[in-house]
Specification:
Length: 135
């Protein structure tokens, strides 16, 4: 995820929407070691650069989180470490928040998985299924 400066887009990777994929975010430090600090949410969109997720509670900016994403199509999880860039109220949800996370040092195998996920979510099969669901 990248910031916009003076209206100019600075994203390196194209984002794509992910339908109904659960994500788990784990905060670092002692909280994580104790098994606390786990937040479950849903993926809104994804790219090799980062992820936007919908979660039930606010996350502080500049904090490091470990993301674990599972999808119906790709059974082995996508795991990445990222930094929370922003967190804001989700205007479509009374209690939820949207969070933008920038991936840090994404492993090549996970970048390849994201490319495969992009192709899958852009496929006619998935687009038709999503259109039928939201019609």
């Amino acid at each position: 995820m990248a910031e916009s400066e003076g209206g100019a887009e600075r994203r390196r990777y194209e984002r794509f929407y992910v339908d109904e994929a659960p994500v788990e975010l784990r905060r670092g430090g002692l909280i994580s070691l104790l098994g606390l600090g786990r937040i479950r949410g849903g993926v809104v969109n994804l790219s090799e650069g980062g992820i936007r997720v919908a979660v039930p509670s606010r996350l502080p900016s500049r904090k490091t989180v470990r993301c674990q994403l599972r999808t119906e199509r790709f059974q082995d999880p996508l795991e990445a470490v990222g930094e929370v860039l922003w967190c804001e109220r989700d205007l479509m949800s009374e209690k939820g928040f949207l969070v933008g996370i920038l991936f840090r040092d994404l492993e090549p195998r996970h970048a390849r998985k994201i490319m495969a996920m992009r192709e899958w979510y852009a496929s006619p099969e998935v687009k038709a299924r999503m259109a039928a669901r939201y019609a």
